[in-house]
Specification:
The protein is built from 7 helices and 9 strands, in the order H-H-H-E-E-H-E-H-E-H-E-E-H-E-E-E. The chain has helices at about 1-10, 15-25, 35-40, 75-85, 100-105, 120-130, 170, and strands at about 60-65, 70, 90-95, 110-115, 135-140, 155-160, 175-185, 190-200, 200-210. It has a 7-stranded mixed beta sheet. Helix 2 packs antiparallel against helix 3. About 45% of the residues are buried.
């Protein structure tokens, strides 16, 4: 009964998802049909607090607790699109949060591993992803700046928090031809950067300005910087 109620609720939000994809994504330059399809398919309202569900498809980030946020839909789609995921790719996400970004990635990649520093968020995201059937996502709790060397290399790495510089362990865990998308900057202003690895060397492309919560860990901020 609960699962049927959730399915009905998901259908209730279908018009909002379609409007989000058309107005916030397609009209702002997101063209990859697989990314648009994934954003249309994932029930974003399931990943936000109950009291914020009516705002789930609005053009803004939303708080999810612990000082963390679920990113604006456009940013989720833009970062995902930049990675150019293939169905055989193994992807690593840093900063699981509520699990929404991992769910989107899971529809495009073969396997998604995701790391969350805060145990309560990691546990909640794992339960949510499992309950919704995203079985190719594996949630780990720990310092995301260290990556998961025991599972490396990764074809794609998405960092969903801002760092002062690209963490060296994550660069080391990129496969040849791999792509990493990461916001780099200070506490208030960052640039979204696409880093690609070819012949052991890294190229960097600055995509657009952005603003994320800080990435806390051994190879980033030791504690959240003051704003």
């Amino acid at each position: 009964m609960l699962r049927r109620s959730r399915m009905l609720e998901t259908e209730d939000y279908a018009p909002q998802r379609a409007e989000m994809v058309e107005k916030q994504l397609r009209r702002r330059g997101i063209e990859d049909p697989s990314v648009l399809a994934a954003m249309l398919a994932v029930p974003r309202h399931e990943f936000v607090p109950q009291e914020l569900r009516t705002k789930a498809y609005d053009d803004m980030p939303l708080p999810i607790g612990g000082g963390q946020t679920i990113s604006q839909p456009y940013i989720v789609a833009a970062m995902t699109s930049a990675l150019r995921l293939q169905s055989t790719d193994r992807a690593l996400e840093i900063g699981t949060g509520c699990g929404f970004q991992a769910a989107v990635l899971s529809l495009l990649a073969e396997e998604v591993l995701t790391i969350e520093l805060r145990p309560e968020l990691a546990s909640a995201a794992s339960q949510k992803l499992t309950s919704l059937g995203y079985n190719n996502v594996h949630v780990h709790c720990g310092d995301g700046t260290l990556g998961l060397p025991e599972f490396a290399p990764f074809d794609a790495i998405l960092v969903a928090a801002a760092a002062p510089a690209s963490p060296e362990p994550l660069l080391a865990e990129l496969a040849e031809g791999g792509r990493m998308i990461i916001p780099i900057g200070d506490a208030d202003n960052q640039d979204l950067r696409l880093i690609e690895k070819h012949a052991g060397a890294f190229s960097i492309k600055i995509l657009e300005g952005c603003r994320f919560v800080p990435l806390v860990g051994h190879h980033a901020w030791q504690k959240p910087p003051q704003r």
